[in-house]
Specification:
By secondary structure, the chain is an alpha+beta fold. It contains 3 helices and 14 strands. Helix content is 15%, strand content 31%. The chain has 2 domains: 105 residues; 94 residues, no CATH class. Pfam families: WSC.
């Protein structure tokens, strides 16, 4: 009899399945899931705007994204089941694990975890304005710049867009243009030093257009005359 009870118990335990919530898929037009990222209560990765919604049990991507989008932000992140954070750029550090907590408003959807953000974005890499083509994300170095000429776009750094930078560089006779650190425009005719294509790091949005990337710290989105 004892053996039968043990067998039944083991069988029942083996049939239990741990349901891990998944990211949202029915997202607003232009938005996509970008991954799980690390966060800290001491230094928030998305600190432009936020709201907490634990009590009403309504938090999920479908409520967080419109909140951030209505305030002009291209990055939205859910955290710890009931928290929503907004910002203009993707966090620097991706967390491979830790996003496992179900949303307070949808138990089948993941809303980050302790010090983890489930990130959604509406940012794209501009394929290149007319006459230009994207060459991807490149490394840069303050000692040896990939493109040597730092130029001002009309309106200054606060108005930087990919189109503004390529137009400025083209008017000056350059064949390469690079946008970096959200507000910098570099021009040149060849990539200098040891700077090379790099997968990652171009996660900052342009100050003049939050829907497109403008490089990052020591990273630039490079464009060439088509």
């Amino acid at each position: 009899m004892y053996n039968s009870i043990i067998s039944i118990t083991l069988f029942a335990a083996s049939t239990l399945a741990i349901v891990i919530p998944s990211p949202a898929f029915n997202l607003p037009t232009g938005w996509e899931y970008s991954g799980c990222y690390t966060d800290s209560t001491q230094r928030r990765e998305l600190n432009s705007d936020f709201y907490f919604d634990m009590g009403s049990k309504a938090m999920n991507a479908e409520t967080c994204i419109p909140f951030c989008e209505s305030r002009g932000f291209a990055v939205a992140g859910t955290e710890y089941s009931g928290e929503c954070f907004c910002g203009p750029k993707i966090p620097l550090q991706m967390g491979t694990t830790g996003c496992y907590m179900p949303c307070a408003g949808d138990a089948m959807q993941v809303c980050g975890g302790p010090d983890r953000l489930t990130i959604y974005t509406s940012i794209t890499t501009n394929p290149g304005p007319a006459g230009w083509v994207s060459k991807g994300c490149y490394t840069d170095n303050v000692s040896v710049r990939a493109l040597t000429a730092l130029e001002q776009v009309p309106g200054g750094s606060e108005q930087l867009t990919v189109a503004a930078c390529t137009s400025t560089c083209g008017a000056l006779g350059y064949t390469l243009a690079g946008v970096e650190y959200a507000g910098e425009c570099f021009c040149g005719n060849e990539v200098q030093g040891m700077n090379v294509p790099f997968q990652g790091g171009c996660g900052m949005t342009c100050k003049g257009n939050s829907s497109e990337f403008c490089g990052g710290p020591n990273r630039l989105n490079l464009y060439a005359v088509a």
